[in-house]
Structures are given as structure tokens and as C-alpha cells.
Design a protein that fits this description.
Blueprint: H1 2-8, H2 18-25, E1 50-54, E2 59-64, E3 72-81, E4 85-91, E5 106-109, E6 113-114, E7 119-129, E8 136-141, E9 147-151, E10 164-168, E11 181-182, E12 190-192
Antiparallel strand pairs: 1-9, 2-8, 2-10, 3-7, 3-9, 3-12, 4-5, 4-6, 4-8, 10-11
Length: 193
């Protein structure tokens, strides 16, 4: 509808009050899409309930961004138990709704690196990118040793298709994810910095 096309417009030049339109749509500045006013590229919001958990060895986990357009050079993960190696990446989206997936293009990726220290730790992407709203952040682990903070979810994986995916044999993260499985329990908290 009208508001969807407004949000997709790059300059809103045909709208009489572009400042108000941008604010109502969560678009601040040039290219930033932030309907929740998070102020960062993130896959969670302030009301997120969290827990911890270990992923499966050599598995990649992908979650959609709730805000975007911010320049990032790192992906921050919150480590509860360190050990083994991880990799992180940012991807563009393809598809929409429950068919949305991180199969557009890889924007940037780290190599496999030792899991950082306990706490909120940045992992370098090696370059600066600006993923958009509904693009994807991803993390992969090489073993079940690293424990990361994640969104508490008991939701059915079928209900979360298009929001989170996992992929086996995906460490380090691949340039194009494939053979994705809807993921309901491993929405790792990630943000750009």
C-alpha cells in the first residue's frame, strides 16, 4: 500500500512533509530504516526475553534485521561460554514473507575466528557495509562448545519461517546459504557496530 511504497522510496521527494513521513516510518537520515527506533542494526528489540544455548557443530544460524541502513564493520554477539570458533556475516534478503531468506548476496563475512571473550563482543567483518531492514545477520559455530545469548523462543519453527533459518555444514558461513531449515530456537542476539 501507500506506506509500503513510502518506506521503499529512497528520497520521499513526492511527499509534502518528508520529515514527518520519515519519522512515522522509522526512517531517519539517508537510507536508515528503523521502525522500532533502535538506533543500531539489530535483530532484537529492548523487550526481548533471552536465554543461552549452544548451537550444533558446523551449523550456521541466520536471523532478519529489525532495523537497517546503519554502517557496520562488526557484528556483536553476546558470549556466555567461550571456546571453539565462530564466523559472522551479513546477507541481503531475497523473497518476502515466510519465503524471505538470506540468499540475495553476502555483504561481508569474517573468517573462522576463535570465539571471543565472555560478554558482548564484536567480531570484525573486515569491511564496512550497510545492511537494510529485513536483511540478515548470521553466526556459525564449529562445535557445541561456544554458548551464546539468544532470544527465548518456544515457538514452532513452522511459525517462524522467513524470520530465522539454520543450515548444516555451514562453518565458516558460505557465500550463498542453501538447504535452509526454519529455525525457532536459535535466534542468536546480534547487532552491528
Amino acid at each position: 500500500g501507500y506506506f509500503t511504497s513510502l518506506q521503499a522510496a529512497s528520497n520521499l521527494s513526492d511527499v509534502a512533509n518528508t520529515g514527518a513521513a520519515r519519522a512515522n516510518l522509522g526512517i531517519s537520515g539517508s537510507g536508515v530504516q528503523d521502525p522500532l527506533n533502535l538506533g543500531i542494526a539489530a535483530n532484537y528489540d529492548a523487550n526481548t526475553s533471552v536465554s543461552t544455548g549452544a548451537g550444533a557443530a558446523n551449523t550456521g544460524y541466520y536471523t532478519r534485521l529489525k532495523s537497517g541502513g546503519y554502517a557496520i564493520g562488526n557484528i556483536v554477539v553476546h558470549v556466555s561460554t567461550t571456546g571453539g570458533n565462530i564466523s559472522v556475516a551479513a546477507y541481503t534478503t531475497s523473497g518476502s514473507g515466510t519465503s524471505a531468506a538470506p540468499t540475495g548476496a553476502q555483504l561481508a563475512t569474517s573468517t573462522a575466528v576463535p570465539t571471543p571473550a565472555v560478554g558482548a563482543s564484536p567480531v570484525s567483518l573486515g569491511t564496512t557495509v550497510s545492511p537494510n531492514l529485513n536483511d540478515w545477520l548470521a553466526v556459525s559455530v564449529d562445535s557445541a562448545t561456544p554458548v551464546l545469548v539468544r532470544v527465548s523462543s518456544g515457538d514452532s519453527t513452522a511459525m517462524l519461517a522467513g524470520l530465522g533459518w539454520s543450515q548444516s555444514s555451514a562453518h565458516p558461513l558460505p557465500s550463498t546459504p542453501a538447504s535452509l531449515v526454519a529455525q525457532g530456537n536459535f535466534f542468536w542476539l546480534m547487532k552491528g557496530s
